[in-house]
Amino acid sequence: MSLQLVEPTIPSRQFHTTATPTLFDLGLSENPFPPLPSVLAAVTTALTQTNRYPEFLPEELPRVIADHLGVSPDNVVVGAGATGVAMQVMRALDGGELLTSTPTFDGYPIMGAQAGMTLVPVPLDRAGNQDLTAMRRSVNRRTSLVVLCRPHNPTGTVLDIAAVGSFLAAIPRRVPVLLDEAYVEFLAPTDRLDIRTLLHRYPNLLILRTFSKAYGLAGLRIGYCVGRGKLIERIRHQQLPFGIPTTSVAAVRAAYAAPTELHDRVDTINREREILRMSLRACGIDVPRSHANFLYLPGPGVATALRRAGIKAKAYPDGSARIAVGDPAAGRAVHTALANLR
What we know:
The protein has 342 residues and is an alpha/beta fold. It has 2 domains: 90 residues, Aspartate Aminotransferase, domain 1; 220 residues, Type I PLP-dependent aspartate aminotransferase-like (Major domain) (Aspartate Aminotransferase, domain 2, 3-Layer(aba) Sandwich). The longest helix is centred in the last third of the chain and has 24 residues. The two termini are 16 Å apart.
């Protein structure tokens, strides 16, 4: 399999203006399901207290997350989704170069520019993987932050566990490495990293996660970062006062208390993803195996065909697209739109 990927130039929820009515919005890799009933009930109850301010600086939510992960609350910083926490990370650094793969999550180039950082994009290899050798060679004295995504956005590929360890060992300790695990819950248990061991071994490592994807809480904007020592302290100093609503704490507590329901939803999304992937491959579209709640559909012509069918997708200049998965009806519509493309 050979993937030729190009970074999108203008990130946008609506990738093209069209008169075609929108039947399915698959552009933001959202969870197609509403919050779990127990989570919705907890948030509804918490809303009765929204006449009161939340904590000036969050203590309860970091403690809840830390208890779940088996780390110290001092190791956890929370914010407005993974995007908000990533912005805190960048603002804690003093400019310099931001080293990422390309394409990657749209937010990194945007936030890097806002934080006064110079983007250093490293192309993916031909299989759609982050090129760790090229990224390692691109680190220099001006590098302020390295970003890895696992699973990768937009291809859904996953870096080998041993390769991640080798990469971290080769990066100077003065250079922070942000490991974006926004889609970690969609990974098989055998593909997941032992973050406590990695954090102990690499003090420059930061783990970034979110409740927007598997947990289906994108609208509540809950993300967090796990790290150690002075590095995580610098990030905590960027914390916005009164920035974490009490509804976020209630939602996370309830979500953690419903592991079986979460597991069932993740299984459903993964199953629908594979059904759609195999049906599209049978049509001649070389869809790479994904480990997230989206599929990357190589172009040319894919984005246009989806748009004409009333399906919003994340479009790329070469005609490729990325679509959220999990909704069977949306999957059937995608298949119908692309069945005769090749």
